[in-house]
Backbone:
């Protein structure tokens, strides 16, 4: 049996004395593509931050049987100060660790790496712009570049499809499918309709966590999971056409 | 014209200009950080809390700047600590610190027997009386801060922008946050010498927002803010000398006027651009 990348066992977490996530368990395997859904305020962001180690663990444990993996993280855009004077190039570069502790500037090779990724993402013309001048989709793209530049084995995306247009969304999903060949992905969304064709399995988070080992889910199951989310969000999404994704 | 140049023969005037230039560079670096992180209000709290230290130092017969520095550093690191804990209304805590610092200062100054020399210097600054020793201290601190900014530019920027992501990247976030709290506190206290407690924050914000009319790139804001601050404070000193009005207040008024004029210039330039080049040539 294949070992999980991350083993989450009966964890609870929250803010100060308030517990917002209770007794959650989940295994993340190297090729997983898990959609994390749930109502607003259900604890999705808290869960991923706990996995990333930036949110305290109240009880339970998180272990990494294969060793602590490199993790890429795209935070929920509402938590970002978009007026901060940082350029796209600097933002993407911030995903690379410093090689020299006492002189933490990027090496030449790292700078080349940044330019290369900016080029692949089509962000090169915007590289010197502050992030405040970008559109919603361009910002998400820049943050995605920051998340993946370090070649993580676990990529965590918190609602990357907010404030973006349809064409960017399509591009994003193509990109994620590609990335999933190399890394496990945790995709948070409150919009199951759009993400369900792409993810392989689903975790419903509303204080508790219910793991659903398929990407097809019905109203009745959501009710059992106590996870009130709209199945048909943003108009018509063909979330029954799923077979084509069984190529793995 | 000869009168204009003859003032440079005075050491006090040369010191004042040197102090204005160095303070401008220091305030440009630290102020850009303050404005970018939107912690202007925190910095105001630190500034006013330092008055408590000045009062206490008077009372104990110590150097008032030492008292101010100690109070400023403790309040800056204290605020950083409170904001990390996060379950206290940070703005209320700062407001309390702000007024409590002033109150403590006033009580101690009142209790200090006899005359308290230079009290007005701390409130309003006196750049025309800067000594050589003070100038050397200012230059040394400015240099150290510049080195710190240059070497640790990336972690400083990243921990200011997104501390959580920085933590994931393994950057010692707390170290940089606290180091900046100390640098902010000391920069403010050192700059009090030039423009005084009541006005010092303007030096850390007005040139920066003037610079941000042109660029939103942290790396470029610093030199541009230094330029606007230097221009403003040198102009302020000249005006104050020839009009015989207080230098600190003149500098701040000039900086504000400068900001408004530059803003007006930028707005009308944008408006002309929107009208299209054809119309501009006709006029
Ligand atoms: N920084 C915070 N301080 C206090 N409570 C918070 C904080 N962030 C989130 N919460 C609370 O925790 C709960 C879960 O929030 P979150 O994990 O952001 O949910 P989701 O991402 O599913 O919308 C909500 O009730 C929210 O109010
Ligand atoms: Mg969230």
Residues:
């Amino acid at each position: 049996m294949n070992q999980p990348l991350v083993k989450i066992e009966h964890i609870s977490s929250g803010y100060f004395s308030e517990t917002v996530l209770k007794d959650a368990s989940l295994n993340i395997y190297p090729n997983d593509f898990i959609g994390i859904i749930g109502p607003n305020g259900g604890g999705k962001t808290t869960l991923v931050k706990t996995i990333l180690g930036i949110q305290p663990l109240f009880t339970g444990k998180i272990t990494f049987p294969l060793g602590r993996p490199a993790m890429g993280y795209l935070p929920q855009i509402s938590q970002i100060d978009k007026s901060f004077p940082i350029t796209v190039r600097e933002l993407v570069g911030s995903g690379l660790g410093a090689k020299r502790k006492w002189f933490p500037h990027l090496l030449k090779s790292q700078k080349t790496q940044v330019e290369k990724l900016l080029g692949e993402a089509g962000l090169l013309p915007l590289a010197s712009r502050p992030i405040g001048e970008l559109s919603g989709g361009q910002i998400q793209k820049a943050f995605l570049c920051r998340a993946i530049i370090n070649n993580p084995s676990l990529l965590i995306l918190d609602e990357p499809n907010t404030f973006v247009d349809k064409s960017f969304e399509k591009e994003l999903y193509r990109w994620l499918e590609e990335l999933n060949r190399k890394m496990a992905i945790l995709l948070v969304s409150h919009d199951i309709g759009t993400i369900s064709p792409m993810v392989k399995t689903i975790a419903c988070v509303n204080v508790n966590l219910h793991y659903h080992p398929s990407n097809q889910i019905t109203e009745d199951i959501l009710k059992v999971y106590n996870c009130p989310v709209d199945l048909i969000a943003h108009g018509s999404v063909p979330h029954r056409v799923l077979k084509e994704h069984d190529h793995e | 014209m000869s009168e204009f140049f003859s003032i440079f023969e005075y050491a006090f005037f040369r010191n004042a200009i040197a102090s204005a230039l160095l303070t401008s560079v220091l305030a440009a670096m630290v102020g850009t950080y303050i404005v970018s992180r939107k912690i202007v209000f925190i910095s105001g709290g630190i500034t006013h809390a330092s008055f408590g230290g000045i009062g206490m130092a008077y009372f104990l017969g110590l150097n008032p700047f030492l008292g101010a520095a100690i109070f400023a550093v403790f309040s800056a690191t204290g605020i950083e600590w409170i904001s990390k804990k996060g379950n206290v209304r940070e703005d209320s805590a700062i407001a309390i610190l702000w007024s409590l610092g002033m109150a403590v200062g006033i009580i101690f100054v009142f209790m200090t027997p006899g005359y308290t020399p230079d009290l007005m210097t701390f409130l309003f600054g006196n750049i025309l009386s800067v000594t050589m020793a003070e100038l050397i201290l200012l230059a040394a601190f400015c240099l150290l801060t510049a080195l710190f900014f240059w070497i640790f530019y990336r972690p400083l920027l990243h921990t200011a922008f997104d501390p959580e992501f920085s933590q994931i990247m393994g950057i010692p976030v707390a170290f940089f946050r606290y180091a900046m709290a100390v640098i902010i506190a000391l920069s403010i206290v050192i700059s009090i010498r030039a423009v005084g407690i009541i006005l010092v924050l303007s030096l850390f914000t007005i040139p920066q927002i003037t610079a941000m009319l042109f660029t939103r790139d942290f790396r470029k804001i610093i030199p541009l803010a230094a330029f606007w601050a230097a221009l403003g404070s040198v102009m302020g000193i000249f005006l104050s000398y020839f009009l015989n009005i207080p230098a600190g207040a003149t500098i701040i008024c000039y900086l504000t006027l400068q900001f408004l004029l530059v803003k007006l210039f930028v707005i009308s330039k944008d408006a002309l651009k929107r009208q299209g080049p054809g119309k501009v040539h006709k006029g």
